[in-house]
Design brief:
This protein is of the alpha+beta class. It contains four helices and eight strands, in the order H-E-E-E-E-E-E-E-H-H-E-H.
Length: 163
């Protein structure tokens, strides 16, 4: 959560000096359907069709229980989220922080002032992202290919909601 990243002990040091940009084609959320227990997966992507630059922080640490010289550092990252814009809000109340290209240098520069960074954590403008329903095949972790991002065809919509 971008609102608390400066306060949480596990994140504040990374926010101050170890920021990164995570490029993504988009991300999935599951939209509630009136009168149904199941949710419909949707793929959220940039209106331009280009990858999205998501704000992240990173950390490098060693397992404190492994004192061997050969222990390799573990590198981890986290995506910062913010309140949803009005495009995403009907689906979910949060969304990743999306960075416009003109602020990438400031985001990555460890000397950027905190108040300038904080201003970058706002929800993306409503017209930056779009979404479409996708197949429930995305729910199975064995499925992992780009077809999962394709829009659900009208004929598929009716057959997926029959049962």
């Amino acid at each position: 959560r971008s609102e608390t990243v400066k306060e949480k002990p596990s994140f504040k040091s990374a926010y101050a000096s170890r920021r990164c940009i995570i490029p993504v084609d988009g991300f999935y959320e599951w939209r509630a359907i009136d009168g149904q227990r199941s949710k419909q997966p949707v793929f959220i992507h940039a209106n331009t069709g280009q990858p999205i630059a998501v704000a992240g922080i990173w950390e490098s640490w060693r397992d404190p229980t492994d004192n061997s010289e050969a222990s390799a550092p573990l590198r981890t990252c986290a995506i910062l989220t913010t309140e949803a814009n009005s495009t995403i809000e009907p689906i979910h109340n949060r969304m990743p922080v999306i960075l416009d290209e003109e602020v990438w240098d400031a985001w990555l520069d460890a000397s950027t002032a905190m108040d300038q960074l904080d201003a970058l954590l706002a929800p993306a403008p409503d017209d930056v992202v779009a979404w479409h329903e996708v197949s429930t095949a995305v729910n199975n972790t064995r499925n992992n290919d780009s077809s999962l991002m394709l829009p659900l065809e009208a004929s598929e919509k009716s057959s997926e909601t029959l049962f």
